[in-house]
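Example 355, ligand prephenic acid.
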Amino acid sequence: MDLKNIENKWVHQFAKPIIIAGPCSAESESQMLETARRIKESGADVPIFRAGIWKPRTKPNGFEGVGVIGLNWLKKVKEEYGFRTATEVANAHHVEAALAADVDILWIGARSTVNPFTVQEIAEALNGTQKPVFVKNPVNPDLALWIGALERLLSQNVQNLGVIHRGFSTYRKTKYRNIPNWQIALDFRQEFPNIPMLVDPSHICGNRTGLAGVAQEAFNVGYEGMIIETHCNPDEAWSDASQQITPEVLADIISNLQIRNSDISAFDDEMDRHRTLISDLDFQLIELLSHRMKISEKIGTLKKDNNIAIFQPERWKIISEYAQQKADETGMSSEFIEKVFKAIHEESIEVQNSL
Ligand SMILES: O=C(O)C(=O)C[C@]1(C(=O)O)C=C[C@@H](O)C=C1
């Protein structure tokens, strides 16, 4: 059994999209029960209730979670409202406590996924469990680390697996708390189509306004579900207040989501025609790039023979400004053109360096 042909039958017990909602942190029994009641009353189709029991915080002296007492509140939520329950585990003690309290679904957080020792410890504590276990992407954009965590679980005979895309840390200031880097998640999906992927718009956005948009983007590319922080009184939440929403707002977001069908057979012909055109253009792009690199190689030889630095900031400035101007004229995103030209320039420098 390997990750590619894993069966993951657990996923079929839930209708798509699978929604996991609940507060960032369990704070009190009344906060948990009120949030659960209002999610139920909102009419939203949410089968799984989440709450953080142990919270990894960036700085010390913050609220680090209520600890095991919160597991009793999760149990009450299950008994009174019929939700399945889910929480994060970050070490073997958490796993033991969560399994003893019969939490239904566990997840490994982004800060744990980066550390193979931690993942190994959690995986061993989970040995043989039938409960679904989700692995959030590591904080840094490292696909191998993400896959490695799943392999560690599988090697402990944990076969009901899923992943959560919660975005990646960045030093740059952006509109996201954690940039989505969709391509990494899509690379993952491509390689492991049997492992369900949920989006975590709360951690990608870090605010309330972007949640619906990010969730929709994820469903547009075929994600199986989402995990979203929902609190009965978000402004007063003890952690991550700015990204939590009320159960009523959640219901509104869910009702506006459009879930796309992954089957394209209904309009095969038209798709085929467009895809042929795209393949043709891709081929031309590669030929053009190859031509450009050959010219760069000639320039590189001239520079080498005349002892001139490879990186020419003035010339690069002209090229990138021209590209930006063209992006504007053609209505393309300037971020996209910037990324493409940076990649081309970087490769051109590599080519000249290798001479
Ligand atoms: O114009 C040059 O000097 C080049 O070598 C070409 C090129 C490019 O690929 O566009 C590569 C490196 C320089 O920093 C600037 C531009």
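Summary: The first strand starts at residue 18 and ends at 22.
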